[in-house]
Every structure is written in C-alpha cells, then in structure tokens.
Amino acid sequence: MFKKGKLGGLEGGYYRPLTTSDERRMHEAVVRLMSEVGIKVENKRAFELFKDAGLKTDQDKKLVYITEAFLEDCIDSAPSSLVLHARGNPDNNIHVGGKRVHYGSGGTALNILDLETAKKRPTTLKDVQDVSKLLDYLNNVHFQVIPVFPNDLPEEQVDINRFFAGINNCNKHVQGGVYTVDGTKQVVEMASMIAGGLEKLQKEPFISFITCVISPLVIDQVYGELLITCAESGLPLSMPAEPLTGATGPITIAGNVANLCAETLSGVCLTQLVNKGTPVLMACTSTSTDLRDMSYADGSVEEGLINSCAAQMAQFYQLPFYGTAGQSDAKIMDAQAGFEGAITNLLVGMAGGNFIHDAVGLLEFCMTACYEKYVMDNEILGEVMRVLQGVLVTDETLAVDVTAAVGPGGNFLQEDHTFEHMREEHFVPTVANRQQRENWEADGSKDTFTRCHEIVLDVLENHKPIPVDEKIVKEIRTKFPNFVQ
Fold this sequence. Notes:
21 strands
C-alpha cells in the first residue's frame, strides 16, 4: 500500500474550519475564560503551585486566574513536538506535532462483543492482551491507547497489569489513563525496568499517560493528583477535557471549543509548574449531545467539527494535539458503525490532528469494544491515509509519454509504468470485497463482519508480537505483588 516509512506522519491540514481571524478571536475568548472566569483547582498541591507562581487566586472559591502572559510562558516551556517511541520496533516510532497525522485506539471500554457469541460482556485482562495483539498487527494503527478495562482485577492491580498487557502484546507506543497514584508510580517503575532505567525511558518513552481536566473549568482533587504524579515522572502526558455541547459546555461549537482550550491549557500550565519542559499534548475528547434528550453522542459529525477546530487551535499554540474520532453510537458493527467512524476520522485527519485516538474498535458511546470493528476501522484508516497522501503531479505521474506510446485505443496493462506505480498510487483493501458476485457467492457470500471475524481469529492464533524479555518479567513479578501476568 504505502512505502516503508509512511506509517503515520502524513501531513494533514487541508481542512481548516477556522479562518485566521477566527483563531485569534478564539484565543481571546480562551484568555478571558482563564483570566476572568478562572479555573477551579480543587487539588491543594496544584492550587498552591499556581498561587506560588504569583497568579491571582480566590482561596474560598478555589479559583485560579491564569493570565495571558503566564499561559504563553507555559506554552513556550512545553515541547512543540515530540517522538513517542515503540518498544521492540523503532520503525513504529511516531513524531507528534505540527500537522502530522497518526491514528490509534482508545477507550477505556468496559464491555466487548464476545468473539464466540457476539453478545456484550464485561472486558477482562485477557481482552486487554488480545486487543493489544490485534492492534500490533493492524497496519494503519500507529499507536495504542489501552482500549479496554480489566473488570476481573481489583483496583490496586489495574494500572500495572493494564500497561504491561499493552506493552507486552503491542510493539507500538502505548498510552493509557491511570487510576491511582500508587499504580501510576508502579507503571513508571515497571516501564523503567523494561527500558533499562528511568533516564533511558524518559529519553525514549514507549509509554505515556492520560489525565483529565473536568468540564467546565475544573482541575479536581483526583485527576489533579494524578496529573502531578505523571508530570513528576518526566514522561509524556495527554491532558484531555470533554465539554459536551449544551451539558458541560456551551451548545455552540465555537463556545465549546473555547471552553475546551481553556480547560486543556490549564492542565498544560500545571504540568509546566510541576516539571518545566514536561512533554504534553493539548487534548480534546469533546463531542456533542443528542438534541432529543441531551445524551452523549459519540458518532456525530459535530464531534468531527469540534476536534478539527481543536486541532487547528493546537497548531495555533504550536503544541502537539491529541484528538478524538472514529467512534460510533451503533450497538453492533453495522453500516452506522462504518459511516460514523469514517466521517470523523477523515475530518480530524484532514485538519492535521496529530494523535487521533478512539479511531478504531469502539461502539455504544465508547462503552463497548468490538474485535471485528478494529479490523474494519483499520481498513477505513488506510483509505483516510491514502487521502492524506494526496496526488503527486510530476512529469512521471502525468505520464504523457506513456500515453503517447500506448496511443489512442491502446491499453496500459502491460506498461512498466503501471507496475512501477500501482502499489504506491492505489490503496489495496483487505476487507472490502471487489469480486464478481458469482465468485463472492462461491466463496461463501461473506459479509464484512464475517471477513473481519476471520481475520481476528487468525491474528489471535498466529500473530506474535515481540514480548518483554522473560528475565525482566520475572523481576517484575518479584518486585510487584499486584502483578498477575
């Protein structure tokens, strides 16, 4: 399909929902929100950090007022781009920043459609392992955000086992949310053991973290503490906020994006107070609500618009961007699951989103994962990446001399030019069926779900990611009582 080296990193930015004037007005609104309305900081350590930095605060209301000058200083201290490494396969390293586009998984789904029954059931640690292996195989998935939750583990075992399952079964960058401070520290120590030390892990980070700012405009106690812990590690960190139109954010897309930017940028500021230079992704998980009942809408075209605007604002601030696209509100892998995911993935990719998560596998408001949808979405992403590859216009590709040699009424089938360019010029599907009907029927009349299901079974049985060295695994088992793999 694509030449080696084209695994992500293709340039987006063709779609610009905001004009240059819009960007400036959006920034002015963001500054007003941060400096006049203020950010509620419920975490005591975080509040004191802002206060000690000389910002105006309101102790009783727990409000911090972030000035434009302070915001600019924090943005300047954060890297404008970063390399997220891949353990075991440096060809899968991704360069995040600018308008370079990468797609990956997301979650964290609590349920999955069972491979045998196709019925919804709670996810387990085995699902974390199996989905990670599938993601390692899928060639248009550039990174893993740990996509499902191990419901079969107690809370104190979740962080270290989720991350290890991702690391051990997927040789791509692994990012994940964290649930406890102790668990976060265990993940850092475990990954440092695998890397050969914390300093080496910081230099070539094959894991990164996610913490959240709560909409509207709150850094709460729990996530504030997790954010501080992650920033102290020196590892990359995504800082999403999730204002929902008309619920936890304004109903208008512009207002929602302004709130989002103020929220995620407040998190960026806190990371730089904790540890100046912390690599951080300005991040968006925002979407719309269904106007009929104001419920969460996960496959709306407005989600694509919101995240495209947010990607453009991240480019305005010259910060790497973590965005959201690809999910569906469908309950099974049907036509709705396909077209909803395709539209938002294409929009946010064309806008130049750098690290687009949730792009594969998710149904039912991100609550349910589907093995087969991971495969279908991988194919959709291949087509999206072909769009981003664009059309190369040169004397060679215009092919006037070739056409002259073939002449009117001829054909190009046996021309060297055809064989030299066919695979780099055209996307070749593995799921979409292009057979004649007679051949399709002779092959069992398989629909998309069936073809994807067969691929999943083959991958889980035969694909072998590069595992963590068993000697290190034994050391991890000895050191961490909560490690169960």
